[in-house]
Amino acid sequence: MKFQNKNFIVLCFALIIQTLKIDATNKVEYDWFPSNVGGGGYITGLIQDPLQPDIMYGRCDVAGVFKSIDRGKSWSPINNGTIEYFHHSVDGFAISTARPNVLFRCSGDARGNRMIGAIHKSKDAGNSWYKVCDEADFFGNGPNRMMGEKIAVDPFDPNFVATVSYHNGVFISTDEGEHFSYSGLKDEPGCVIAFHPYKKNVLYVGTRYQLPFKEYLYPATNYNRPKQSKLFVTKDKGKTWEICYQGNELEFLDMTFDMFNENIVFVASSNGIFKSTDGGEKFYSKN
Asked: Which of 49, 119, 156, 175 is most deeply buried (CB count within 10 A of its CB)?
């Protein structure tokens, strides 16, 4: 069974660890206890090594990325090579399912009416990082920090990596994240990017209604995008993008996929949970 867990939000690094118990009647119970991380801010996302389940990574808004090798009982910061202050405001991260030692992190901040950002890569399971892109902007300590991941590695092709930035659009890499190029969707308030885990070459990008803190980017208030969220999809590695959905009943804050039906998509929105049974063209509230 495959689990995709992210956006576990816990105040002040009070990360909670879960222990599963199954009694004679197959009733499932859970014991929870706090884990000592030793840092400040919010934990805004978790990912797990697909081959070594004892290894976990946590991203946060002000202290970078942390790593656990004992299923979350203890954590250590892994930020070697991230030298700028905004490199520790992590807006999204990803692990390669084919080569789990390869990790990516997106970081950024808003200063002086502009967004700044960077993508870093690690080839040694987070022990060291180096910058691979500074064209995409992110806001790791901003309003999108507790939402979906902003970078993803294709589960069918580990050389293909894609990221959605705060407002500069989508950037893609075809050489395992060594170089990135612009793929479109500039000025869209990107919030989550996700490869379909069971459909080859299908990549989604979800947006919010509006761009939060747009005055950082458009001091003259010349940002006139209609108040609509959108779900974009590409099936040719970012060469062209189509709109699956646009409307104002939900925002695409995070998304995941049904492992038994490849056409079912679940979306976390500010209005609750929504479900699509046609790959993202129509959504129905599941509140």
From this structure: 119
